[in-house]
Structures are given as structure tokens and as C-alpha cells.
Write a structure and sequence with these properties.
By secondary structure, the chain is α/β, with parallel strands linked by helices. The protein is built from nine helices and seven strands; from the N terminus they run βαααααβαβαβαβββα. Helix 8 links the parallel strand 4 and strand 5. It binds xylulose-1,5-bisphosphate and magnesium ion.
């Protein structure tokens, strides 16, 4: 990689990175949808951790059926059945977002404001359904925040979801930029496999589900972005003693990579 290339764009994953959406958000919405559909499936916190091996809600339901519900009498149109179930799940999830049930992670709003003021181009790169992103941003940062992002790359827009590189490549193509000028923010093993496959330098913030994932490819691993009064913990990489991630730390990381 060209060591002198300018950092122009920051590409943010959503689930687990901007907000802790999985355990008390997506998981709960899946369970509501199963109930609504008259199914007796219940994804526990622990089981959901195993199911997170597969990104994408529809793909996750299919994986669950294959791995854990071998006796399920699948309908003839399994794809349609899963799509319908997933639509129900999305409706429940959007309602939760509208009710403000899912806040942003510590330091996210501060960091977004800081990097915006510094003039970085911002992008969203996620496997989740597009409305899940817009509702989250609207509920937490207000409607105007949608305009902060020059690209929102989400969901089925590419054929292969993370860990494939496709969604990052799609976002960079939309921005007219290459990995020489972009930095990714991720929270999971599948996320960094995807960003790394797209050749991107990556900062990771872990969460309960992803703490044990393999982040050896990351440039920096933190427990959170941090705030002046609530410092982050550096798990690997160099923050030069700073207690929270800001433009200065990002730039210094970029020049040292
Ligand atoms: C996030 C996901 C998503 C959500 C569910 O992965 O795997 O599938 O769990 O969203 P990443 P949908 O953070 O790596 O993008 O149900 O809308 O697919
Ligand atoms: Mg994620």
C-alpha cells in the first residue's frame, strides 16, 4: 500500500460498531417474528452468538434451519417463507428503533461529529437491511444525519455479504475511491475478513459477542471509541496514550500503517 496516500473516507459498519444491535435488537426482533408466524423457535442469547457466524438475517434463518432444526418440515417455497419471516422481523426491529430502544455506542456521536468537521467523506458499509440503517440514524442522530453519509451500502445490494469483500468494494466504487484512501471501522471477525479482503486498513471496536474473534489483521482494536470522561481500553495497537479515538489518533494510525 502507498504509505503517502491521503486518508479521505471513513467507512463504518453498523451492527456492533455504531450500536449494540444484536443481542437486544435483532435477536429479539427475530423471536417476535417467529412467534407471530406461529413458530416455537426461540433464539437464546447464547444460541444467537453461534448464529452470528452467518451475516444477514435471511441467511441466518437458513443456517439455523440447516444446523439446528433438521426436523423442520420446510415449505416448498423455502426462500419465500424465509423472506416473509424476515420481513416480519424487520418490521419488529424498525419499531424497536423508532421507540429509541437501541442507542449508539459510547463515543460514536462524538467521533462522527469530529470527523465530519475535519472534512472526511463518510460511508456506511453493512449487511443489514437498508431501512434498519436509516431508522437507527434518524432515531439516534436525527433525520439530517442521513446526509452525513455519501454512501449507504447495505443488505442485498451485493450478491455476497460479509465476510466477502463485495459490499466494501461496492461502497468504494460509489465514492470513486480505492482502499488507498479509505479506512474501515468494524466490530467482528466477519467484518474484518470483509474489510481486509477489500484491502482496507481497519479499526475494530469489540463487543460481548465478538471479543474472542480474530482481529490480527486490525490496525487498532479498542473496547469502544471512548469519551473524554469514559476512556476506551486499547486491546491492540497504538493510541499514543489517548483515552478516546479522535481525528488525531486516526491520522497518526494512518501514517504509521
Ligand atoms: C450484521 C448482520 C446483520 C444483522 C441483521 O453484520 O449480520 O445481518 O444481524 O440484519 P455486519 P438483517 O455488522 O458485519 O454487517 O436481518 O436486516 O439482515
Ligand atoms: Mg458488525
Amino acid at each position: 500500500m502507498n504509505q503517502n496516500s491521503e486518508l479521505k473516507a471513513l467507512l463504518f459498519d453498523v451492527d456492533g460498531t455504531l450500536a449494540d444491535t444484536e443481542r437486544d435488537g435483532h435477536r429479539v426482533a427475530f423471536n417476535y417474528a417467529f412467534k407471530e408466524a406461529g413458530l416455537d423457535w426461540e433464539w437464546s442469547v447464547e444460541r444467537y452468538g453461534e448464529l452470528l457466524a452467518v451475516t444477514g438475517g435471511k441467511e441466518r434463518i437458513k443456517y439455523f434451519l440447516d444446523e439446528f432444526e433438521a426436523s423442520f418440515q420446510a415449505p416448498e417455497d423455502l426462500t419465500g417463507f424465509i423472506a416473509d419471516l424476515h420481513q416480519k422481523k424487520t418490521a419488529h426491529y424498525l419499531e424497536m428503533l423508532q421507540q429509541g430502544a437501541i442507542p449508539l455506542r459510547n463515543g460514536v456521536e462524538r467521533l462522527l461529529n469530529e470527523v465530519r468537521e475535519a472534512g472526511f467523506i463518510l460511508g456506511i458499509v453493512t449487511t443489514t437491511t437498508p431501512e434498519n440503517v436509516t431508522y437507527l440514524l434518524e432515531a439516534t442522530l436525527g433525520k439530517a444525519s442521513l446526509d452525513w453519509f455519501s454512501v449507504i451500502a447495505a443488505g442485498d445490494i451485493v450478491p455476497a455479504k460479509k465476510p466477502a469483500a463485495d459490499i466494501y468494494l461496492y461502497a468504494m466504487e460509489k465514492l470513486g475511491l480505492s482502499a488507498e484512501n479509505c479506512l474501515a471501522f468494524e466490530d467482528s471477525g466477519n467484518g474484518i475478513l470483509s474489510s481486509h479482503a477489500a484491502d482496507l486498513s481497519t479499526i475494530v471496536t469489540i463487543n460481548d459477542y465478538t471479543a474472542e474473534h480474530d482481529f490480527t489483521a486490525a490496525d487498532l482494536v479498542l473496547d469502544q471509541f471512548g469519551e473524554p470522561d469514559a476512556p476506551c481500553r486499547v486491546i491492540s495497537g497504538n493510541m499514543n496514550g489517548a483515552g478516546y479515538l479522535g481525528v488525531k489518533e486516526i491520522q497518526s494510525l494512518w501514517s504509521e500503517r
